[in-house]
From TrEMBL:
Gene name per UniProt: metZ
Pathway the protein acts in: Amino-acid biosynthesis; L-methionine biosynthesis via de novo pathway; L-homocysteine from O-succinyl-L-homoserine: step 1/1
Native organism: Roseovarius pacificus
EC number: 2.5.1.-
Cofactor or coenzyme needed: pyridoxal 5'-phosphate
Gene Ontology molecular-function annotations: carbon-sulfur lyase activity; pyridoxal phosphate binding; transferase activity, transferring alkyl or aryl (other than methyl) groups
Annotated protein name in UniProt: O-succinylhomoserine sulfhydrylase
Length: 397
């Protein structure tokens, strides 16, 4: 593959391997294993498998390898490992490199399952975790110690859309030799420059924008070849969180169109955020790509665009938020994001239900907050749908 190719060319052609049939569309190698010509070849392959020499689908598979190579090329990472879900990627990235006695600093504003891994699971195995307000570099500076092994954060937090200064945190972490692990879902692979900005390990839930059509769970971990093949692969291949070949095929096809979809979604999200400014019934409209966002300059520097998700705070708390959701005609009530279909979520009662009320308040997950993942429908239709639902929420008081 030509490393000089621009992103959209890499997304269509990167990582392609053709069989003897020279198929146009990538083949699905739906096989758990591979046949060896001789016993000696089997022995040699178990001893040291070369590139494109496969043993067992839990270790690697040609369709999965195509996906890994394509996303690594886009992200500018040396290598990648595909996983069964985004959480297999998050937990694998952390657990593969940590041991009892290690110290991790993490942003507190996290997707519920990420918080569970850090707060409940890693600590059970003797890893010390310090939580900070990810947007405050002073707190990172105070919490990171000489013996800190890793830092973890969502570059844009779910669902409050606070943005972490990736370059700033990476500088503080690298000064003590800590590994910077970034959950980059909300930034999306299209707007990410995470590796160039100092991330050592980048994690995506491929379930979100990479599939982008709500079909399959998946995840991917990107980093240096040393980290991916030396630290991560032995952990993943023995603990079993590998991606299936069928899922990898879906994700490969997702990558072909991700740039077109995500750019259209981000343009729509900005238009919706603009249309909703000053709308009666809305206490807040949070969109990282709108100048009203507290970290607008950082967003422009770090991502260039604001991504595909907006957060709305309805006046009137949970009853108003529920009336809003129930009045939507086009936007679906569900909990995925990055999908071609627009989706609205009430985090306080669904994705972040498990959090105690004081933590919800501290993280800005208020009863009136609705997360809106903007799809690829017509922008005017979406604006009209959202505006009428806000009005209905108001009228129902
Ligand atoms: C969805 C999500 C995950 C988990 O991904 P799954 O594919 O659902 O396992 C992790 N982090 C963030 C920020 C997410 O949005």
């Amino acid at each position: 593959m030509d490393s000089e190719w621009k992103a959209r060319t890499k997304l269509v052609h990167g990582g392609t391997r053709r069989s003897q049939w020279n198929e146009v569309s990538e083949a699905i190698f739906l096989t758990q294993g591979f046949v060896y010509e001789t016993a000696e070849q089997a022995e040699a392959r178990f001893l040291n498998a070369g590139p494109d020499e496969y043993i067992y689908a839990r270790y690697g598979n040609p369709t999965v390898a195509m996906f890994e190579e394509r996303i690594a090329a886009l992200e500018g990472a040396e290598d990648a490992f595909a996983t069964a879900s985004g959480m297999a990627a998050v937990s694998g990235a952390l657990t593969s490199m940590l041991r009892a006695g290690d110290h991790v600093v993490s942003a507190r504003a996290l997707f519920g399952s990420c918080l569970y891994v850090l707060e409940e699971i890693l600590t059970r195995y003797g890893v010390e975790v310090t939580f900070v307000d990810g947007t405050d570099l002073e707190q990172w500076r105070d919490a990171i110690r000489e013996d800190t092994t890793a830092v973890f954060f969502e570059s844009v937090a779910n669902p409050t859309l606070d943005v972490v200064d990736l370059q700033g945190v990476a500088e503080i972490a690298h000064a003590v030799g800590a590994t910077v692990i970034v959950d980059n879902v909300f930034a999306t692979p299209v707007f990410s420059r995470a590796i160039e900005q100092g991330a050592d390990v980048v994690v995506y839930s491929a379930t979100k924008h990479i599939d982008g059509q709500g079909r399959a769970l998946g995840g991917v971990i990107l980093g240096t070849r040393d980290f991916i093949r030396g630290t991560l692969e032995p952990y993943m291949k023995h603990t079993g969180g590998s991606m299936s070949p069928f899922t990898a095929w879906i994700m490969l096809k997702g990558l072909e169109t991700i740039s077109l979809r995500v750019r259209a979604q981000a343009d729509s999200a900005l238009a919706i955020a603009e249309a909703l400014q000053g709308q009666a019934g809305l206490a807040r409209v949070i969109y990282p790509g709108h100048p009203s966002h507290a970290q607008y300059d950082l967003v422009q520097r770090q991502m260039g665009k604001g991504g595909t998700v907006i957060a709305l705070e309805l006046e009137g708390g949970q009853p108003a938020a529920f009336r809003f959701l129930n009045a939507l005609q086009i936007v679906l009530i569900s909990n995925n994001l990055g999908d071609a279909k627009s989706i609205a979520t009430h985090p306080a009662t669904t994705t972040h239900q498990r959090l105690p009320d004081d933590q919800k308040v501290a993280l800005g997950i208020t009863p009136g907050l609705v997360r809106l993942s903007v799809g690829i429908e017509d922008t005017e239709d979406l604006v009209a749908d959202i505006v009428q639902a806000v009005a209905a929420a108001q009228a129902g008081k």
